[in-house]
Write a structure and sequence with these properties.
Helix content is 29%, strand content 20%. The protein has 16 helices and 25 strands. β19 and β20 form a beta hairpin. The protein has a nine-stranded mixed sheet, sandwiched between helices. α8 crosses α9 and α15 runs antiparallel to α16. The termini are far apart. The chain is globular.
Amino acid sequence: MSAVSICKTVSRVVKFRLPAQYSSVSLNAQNRRSFHLYSPEPFHPIPDKSPTWMSAEEAVRVVRSDMRVYVHGAAATPITLVEALSEHGLSSSLSNVEVMHIHTEGPGTYAKPEYEGIFRSNSLFIGANCREAVNSGRGDFTPIFLCEIPLLFRRKLIELDVAMISVSSPDKHGFCTLGPSVDCTRAAIQNARFIIGLVNPHMPRTFGDGMIHMSHFDAMVKGDYPLPELKATEQTDIEKQIGRVIAGNLVQDGATLQMGIGSIPDAVLDALWSHRDLGIHSEMFSDGVMDLVERGAITNAQKVIHPGKIVGGFAMGTRKLYEFMDDNPFIVMCDIAFVNNVSIISQNPRVTAINSCIEVDLTGQVVSDSIGTRMYSGVGGQVDFMRGAALSNDGLGKPILALPSTTKRGESKIVPFIKEGAGVVTTRAHVHYIVTEYGIAFLFGKNVRQRAHALIEIAHPDHREHLEEAAFKRLKCMPSA
């Protein structure tokens, strides 16, 4: 590292001053963080450094006005710390604290109306607890590919003052893990100035990139509560049919699967029990993957990247899943910059990426993050895996997007034009397979007239005539194969 770089790093550390009442931690943080001058790597133990154990209320006092706080997401959301932070902001009259995260679980108290002006959430992927804040203007949404979120931290485009994370209990060597959610959190803890760890014995101890030695924490807090669970909802007959269409026609034995979240990916997994030698390389996974392992359908035997192992960025499911993950070398949880890297994805055999979406227009533009102007979720890893499958080295990849043909109100999800304000996540140039309960439309290499024809054929029969008329009006010719 050059002298100039060292000076810049020292300058960043010096500017981060803690409140006077936090003096004991201040000494640890400012006099013992010189390791940042040569290595942000959380794997190695830092000689003669140990964290200060304290309550959640004490730990969050480090947060002051105008700071940026990163919060661990999904099943690893440190709910105890989040609640303490929210109370601290209110009682200490903080202002303009930015809370950055992918989707989190729990109430998301900081995003509620009464905390406006104290906190402002910045969702890199919108969860249910921040959706109202984003759509009411009290919270922000940053559109970004999931694989590129770590670049924000590693390139110092976004600098983090404090990271609040959940970890499994330290082992005899002092190593904790990020449990079911390594995702972009590894990059966050590599670059945050102050790290608070919530040690929860319910967190599964996982293998992969999520190891962090306890000497890297500035404060540690004991927590003891079950992780948030994502329980499967009852699948509709339409979703089951979509699952059967995909499993029976597009998923081959030996395929490497990426599954998004939701009822349709779950329906696909439920229809794969007779398949063999499937592999998993996916940004996320849930209970359906565990069930296929127990059935013998998933072996990961033919994978090129981490053969014999499930590779994921984060997992969200039931307690049974978290117990399955605990201390299980069959599962490797990795940095999302690796998991979702197109050049990594494409090396696996028969990459089959299965994701859901909200709306598709007759030219193949895919809306996945919004309903008109109303922001709903985010960009996530959909495009990462659409490209990885499309560019697979063996030429056998299948990028699949699935959706019911109609909404619950009977409106067609295949439309002449996307809704005003809706965001195109997967472009018409990226799309390959669109699947509804009525079949499969293969759009890659098709012109716009052919695409309209293929999409109308898998639309709900009640809407096909209208869509054909709209296509003629838009294209000035009849859609045809």
